Amino acid sequence: MSLRKVFRTRKFSRSFKEAPAVGAAEGGVTGNGVEHAHEDGWSNMLPEILCEIVRRVDAAEELWPNRQNVVSCACVCKRWRDITREVVREPLHTGKITFPSCLKQPGPREVPHQCLIKRNKKTSTFYLYLALTQSFTDKGKFLLAARRYRCGTHTEYIISLDADDLSQGSNAYVGKLSSDFLGTNFVIYDSQPPHSGAKPSSGRASRRFASKQISPQVPAGNFEVGQVSYKFNLLKSRGPRRMVCSMKSPVTPFKPTGETSESTSLDGHKMHDKEHPASGHTILKNKAPRWHEHLQCWCLNFHGRVTVASVKNFQLVATVDQSQPGGKGDEETVLLQFGKVGDDTFTMDYRQPLSAFQAFAICLTSFGTKLACE
């Protein structure tokens, strides 16, 4: 029986649950100081065999839920986790979303990730799914959830990995989106520092915990990673909504294979300078629609990914001169598009340099009434 078939059997799945704990699997120190290892532990497998097993599982699994076996490999023990990190490459190169950290890494270069956003108006909750088929009714793989809260004069969207726990104190908290009173200017906050030495944003609105709630294991603040602004259109003379986004490039924590030059990411893992995006800002603006004389409306080509006309629909392109928000955009490469396909269903397609977290936050800004911009 091949290794691929072995990994798909129930017997192997049960063996993951029965594997020894990380400390025991990697050996311990006896009372007299002699180090020993459990002979029956999964961690004692030869490195060459272990690496080959993980490589074959990673190559065989293209989509979720099949890629749950790759995650299982990383859950066996620390040694398996390190090998899996060495083998699994980031979405920028493979287009595969495997671990939660992939949600903050840049999307694919060529073919964008196709996602669905589903809205629950009663609870003001939004759910992001990775589409596994071309159908708009596809359940997909759950990625992120967000809930809208009214906080005094501004609105906040709390973004979480857990659809049932949407609070800043949760271990599943990944960031938030905060708007001004008019809902025209937004700031995106990440729960993790975007680079080494980054300081959390000051101000009460950007705090994650009260002073008595701070835990040494959890970052106490939020770190600004982007801004979204909608231009005023009080005279209704400039067409649909116009928006400008300034985003900090995501960090790539995993090490791609086959390169030589290396650098170190935030979590201490090595990565390669030629493979991760350059640090700095990416300035995006909405692609200008064209006026359709026959339909008497503004139109954009969403290539079948949007089926319902809505003021919320948009496409974002990068400006050529990144230092000038008003610079001319690359009309051929859409980095993020968002549009309506049902009463409470929307599509979200994103690619490099945006991450799923950043793209989701930008799309959340489109919800809500903006009288000053329409």
Automatic annotation (TrEMBL):
It comes from Vigna radiata var. radiata. PANTHER family: TUBBY-LIKE F-BOX PROTEIN 7, TUBBY-RELATED. This is Tubby-like F-box protein. Residues 103-369 form the Tubby C-terminal domain. It holds the Pfam family Tub. SUPFAM superfamilies: F-box domain (SSF81383), Tubby C-terminal domain-like (SSF54518). Signal peptide: none annotated. Belongs to the TUB family. GO terms for biological process: regulation of DNA-templated transcription. Residues 246-280 are annotated as: Disordered. The gene is LOC106778143. Residues 267-278 have a biased composition (Basic and acidic residues). InterPro entries: F-box-like_dom_sf (IPR036047), F-box_dom (IPR001810), Tubby-like_C (IPR025659), Tubby_C (IPR000007), Tubby_C_CS (IPR018066). Coiled coil: none annotated. Residues 42-86 form the F-box domain.
